[in-house]
UniProtKB/TrEMBL annotation:
Keywords: DNA-binding, Transcription, Transcription regulation. Residues 153-222 form the HTH crp-type domain. The keyword DNA-binding applies. One of its GO terms (molecular function) is DNA binding. Residues 18-122 form the Cyclic nucleotide-binding domain. The lineage of its organism: Bacteria, Bacillati, Bacillota, Clostridia, Lachnospirales. GO terms for biological process: regulation of DNA-templated transcription. SMART domains: HTH_CRP. This is CRP/FNR family cyclic AMP-dependent transcriptional regulator. InterPro entries: cNMP-bd_dom (IPR000595), cNMP-bd_dom_sf (IPR018490), HTH_CRP (IPR012318), RmlC-like_jellyroll (IPR014710), WH-like_DNA-bd_sf (IPR036388), WH_DNA-bd_sf (IPR036390). Signal peptide: none annotated. Pfam families: cNMP_binding, HTH_Crp_2.
Amino acid sequence: MNDAMSLINELHSEPREYLNNYLANAPKWLLEAFKIVNLKKGTTFIHENETVDTIYILVEGVVKATDYRVQEIAYDYTRFYPVEVFGAMEFLMGFELYRTTLVTETDCRFLCVSKDQFSRWMLSDIHAVLEQVKAMGVYLLEQVRKERLFLFLQGSDRLFLLFMEIYRKSSHRGTCRIQLARKDLSNSTGLCIKTVNRCVSQMEEKGYISREGRTIIIDEEQYRRIKAVVAEKIDENEI
């Protein structure tokens, strides 16, 4: 068994099952070509408008996508959790350059392969192509819907929506620990840091969140309360 398969077998059930399905028809040469790459928190590993040369498969950790196009203001418009394949969308859409900047928000682990090897595999494996297209479609739909909501939400409602998303994707045994600085929360919501500080303080006072130092904690009951607040302003099918 090669290193890539050994790593996959060590993952939690959900990412392991996803990768086993995604790579179900992968040839031996591809599995042997994968390299395991570990990156520290805060590493920018893909820069927008650089040539697509490597495909990164996120298997552990959290990655954020950052946009700098408007007056060079950082906007962390989404976060990715395992399993996510970076560079695949550019390949499928025929782009030669990466379309966004990606930064590790935690220590991360990836399976990496060259674009040429990934392309060779994709062009011979319809199952993998369909899985990738489905994942890409789900992501684009969720992203567009979130951005539409943000157009009409203000202040704490944007933070509530962000906290709901993070809770759903990273809670463990009913509890979510959010270790984001106020600047990160500002970049993710388009709110100024002063507004973020005020909203977070109000949320804590009203019991929607708890804090341990700089860590924001949301338990299952608090999540339900946050969801109820958001549901008053958004069609429940959207949340």
